[in-house]
# Entry
Amino acid sequence: MAKGIENRARSPPTVFDFATSQIQKHGGMKMYYDLVESGKRIKALRKEHGLTQEQLAEQLGVAANTIARIETGNRGISIDLAIELVVRFDTTLDYIFLGRE
# Structure
């Protein structure tokens, strides 16, 4: 094992411990971003703010079916769209992507 990798393995816990505990397997790759769970959080935020998918789509400048696909986990979101959601819903990127409040 390379010295740098060995040292990292022995490092104290980091801020990513939560995310690491939430890793899911996807095609043999470890993924931090769970599309389905993220979509559920976005849907809940939209409903908490009393918006329909169509209304949110119009505010964000995307198609309504884009919001539907995001909320069902069939489509991921760009960082730009995530930032728009953070601003509109007064939340954080950690919450949108990882579910960490």
Remarks:
- The first strand starts at residue 24 and ends at 26.
- The beta strands are 24-26, 29-31.
- The helical segments are 3-9, 17-21, 35-48, 53-60, 64-71, 79-89, 93-98.
